[in-house]
Amino acid sequence: MEIWVFILSAVWLWFFVHDRTQFTDAFLKARTPLLLFAGWLIIVAIQLLPLPLPILNLISPEAGQLYTSLGQLAFAEQLNQSGTAHTGSLSLDPWATSLAWSRSLAIILIFALTLLLVTTRQRLRLLIYLLLYSALFQAIFGSFMTLSGIEWGFFHHKEAYLGKATGTFVNRNHLAGYLNMALAMGIGLLIASLTASTTRRSLRQRARDFLKLLLSPKMRLRLYLAILVIGLILTRSRMGNTAFFASLLITGCLALVLFKHKTRSMVILLASLVIIDLFLLGAWFGIDKVAERIERTSIQTENRDEIFRDASTMVKKYPVMGTGLGSFYSSFPRYKGEDISGFYYHTHNDYLQFLVEGGGIGFVLVGLPVILALFTALRAMRKRRDPLMRGMAFAATMGITAILIHSAVDFNLQIPANGALFIVLLALAYIALYLRDDSKQKMGV
């Protein structure tokens, strides 16, 4: 993924240098989040710098103490032979942090490329449909494997999450997060296709319109969304399903308040999504099993609270610059309690993981662009009259809200596929507000 993103970025830069393309309005208006993301990359790079121990002790006393003990015990002889002073980095795992920096750069470049390349309504629709088809494949594949009992993952037989849809993901919760974001995009397209009717129609006209609807792309899109909901339900993900219906309800209410020209068809659509998808499809494909899992959830049955407890201790130990991006899996064993068994790569809480690995500074730099994008999407819902742009603003708002809810108990943003799709949603908010009508502008390739 990173290689392809870097190649695409280099190609765009070549076109720009040769005056074959130019910056878009959306890209220029998104300069604040771009600068914040650049600051995030700088902070992570600083985590990798070898610093003299006195300076390291000043910035991160806990990291300085750790490197001092390592130098005295493991590397004392090597350091003395080289004749150099003891040094250490803010990252407790520089190799993992270097890999995470490269991944962060690729994700941020996806944000920039989306803003730079989605220059027309046709490209916007193509992007959304391609992402929708990718999620549709995941939902069909995951549902088939679960309902048929074959239980294969990505070219291997599943050993975990048997009886739950995972698609090509390892973890069902990450499939749920991916489907949530794709569902938001699909619902945004449906809202964009709604039209207001101001004339009274006869029964014959209504029957004809209904037949046209059954054969229209709108009905196919509605079918796609139903399949995605089935896949989501079959993941049996508690917070994944909760995040979907909560984000739909929240964004739907916001749309009814912010949209200047609300139509009865939009209210009917939002109601049908809840009634048909939750009650009919949910009853058929086992939403009761998801509810049962939620009811059985307790502090005694969950081990996330112990992880949160010990990870919070790490935040107190490394409050400013963190332990280094990507370092949680190697640094957590030093701080985990005896009541935690097993090996954890992530905190099962994106907020907490960014605090642990990036510190307070990194958390602000990576969090502010999300808040800015969410407010930009809300502005687009309020200001834009173009149905497609309002639909995309709805999609960005719902998708971002769903992941913000889900991130409280999982780590969707640590998975490259989900992180990439989430960053596209952030870019979509700016595109929804600043992409002008094709007939009023001419942009580059």
SSE layout and pairings?
Blueprint: H1 2-17, H2 25-29, H3 31-48, E1 51-52, H4 53-59, H5 61-73, H6 76-82, E2 87-88, H7 94-117, H8 121-148, H9 172-192, H10 203-214, H11 217-234, H12 238-258, H13 264-285, H14 287-296, H15 304-317, H16 328-331, H17 350-383, H18 387-406, H19 416-434
Helix pairs in contact: 1-7, 3-7, 3-17, 4-5, 7-19, 8-9, 8-11, 9-11, 9-12, 9-18, 9-19, 11-13, 12-13, 12-18, 15-17, 17-18, 17-19, 18-19
Please outline the major beta sheet: 2 strands, antiparallel
By DSSP (H or I, 4+ residues per run), the number of helices equals: 19
Distance between the termini: 22 Å
Q: Give average pLDDT, whole number.
A: 85
**Low-pLDDT residue spans:** 74-85, 439-445
Strand order of the largest sheet: 1-2
The sequence of SSEs as H and E is: HHHEHHHEHHHHHHHHHHHHH
**What is the helix content?**
over 70%
> What is the gyration radius calculated from CA atoms?
24 Å
Shape: globular
Structural class: mainly alpha
> How many domains make up the coordinates?
1
How much of the sequence is in beta strands? under 5%
How many strands appear in the DSSP assignment?
2
